[in-house]
Amino acid sequence: QVQLVESGGGLVQPGGSLRLSCAASGSIFSVNGMGWYRQAPGKQRELVASITSGGNTNYGDSVKGRFTVSRDNPKNTVYLQMNSLKPEDTAVYYCNVDFVTYRGLRYNSWGQGTQVTISS
User: Fold this and answer.
1) How far apart are CA 23 and CA 46, in angstroms?
2) Which of 33, 48, 59, 83 is the most buried (most CB within 10 A)?
3) Number of C-beta neighbours around residue 43 at 10 A
4) What would the DSSP string read from start to end of the chain?
5) Residue 1 CB burial class (10 angstroms; 0-12, 13-18, ≥19)
6) What is the pLDDT, as a whole number, of residue 2?
7) How does residue 37 score in pLDDT terms, banded at 50, 70 and 90?
8) At residue 73, what are phi and psi to the nearest 5 degrees?
9) What pLDDT score was predicted for residue 1?
10) Is the dihedral of CA 37, 42, 43, 44 positive or negative?
11) Cβ-defined contacts of 54-62 (< 8 Å, 24+)
12) How far apart are CA 2 and CA 79, in angstroms?
């Protein structure tokens, strides 16, 4: 079974930086789109950043200019570099991967989430 492992979350002061990683492993033939979502208490889950297999990126308005999404295709890994962090960035961050198995079936999988807290 395919598994997504997230890492890099934690506590950081306003203006600081964090780098999140999400590695997919298992019976994966190829990876299509990859992305990051977040959900804060009392709010709906929102798209933070996404990246296509061709490297095209898309960002939520609140993180443009501060966050950068990238991917390492041989490692089936997606990254989220977060700079100039603000208290409103505090949330649980989830990675999402769209992939094709060796049997030719397409699936979409979510990570279990990693807590990011921005506080003085």
Assistant:
1) 21
2) 48
3) 9
4) --EEEEE--EEE-TT--EEEEEEEESSEEEEEEEEEEEE-TTS--EEEEEE-TT--EEE-GGGTTTEEEEEEGGGTEEEEEE-S--GGG-EEEEEEEEEEETTS-EEEEE---EEEEE--
5) exposed
6) 85
7) very high
8) -60, -45
9) 77
10) positive
11) 62/88
12) 18
From the list 120, 116, 110, 119, the residue with the least C-alpha distance to 8 is 116
- What tokens does 61 get? 């308005």
Q: Which positions ≥6 away from 85 have C-beta within 8 Å?
A: 12, 14, 15, 16, 17, 18, 66, 116, 118
Structure tokens at 53: 């297999």
| Percentage of the chain exceeding pLDDT 90 | 97
Quick one: CA dihedral 35, 98, 44, 5, positive or negative? Answer: negative
CB-based burial label for 74 (10 Å; 0-12, 13-18, 19+)? exposed
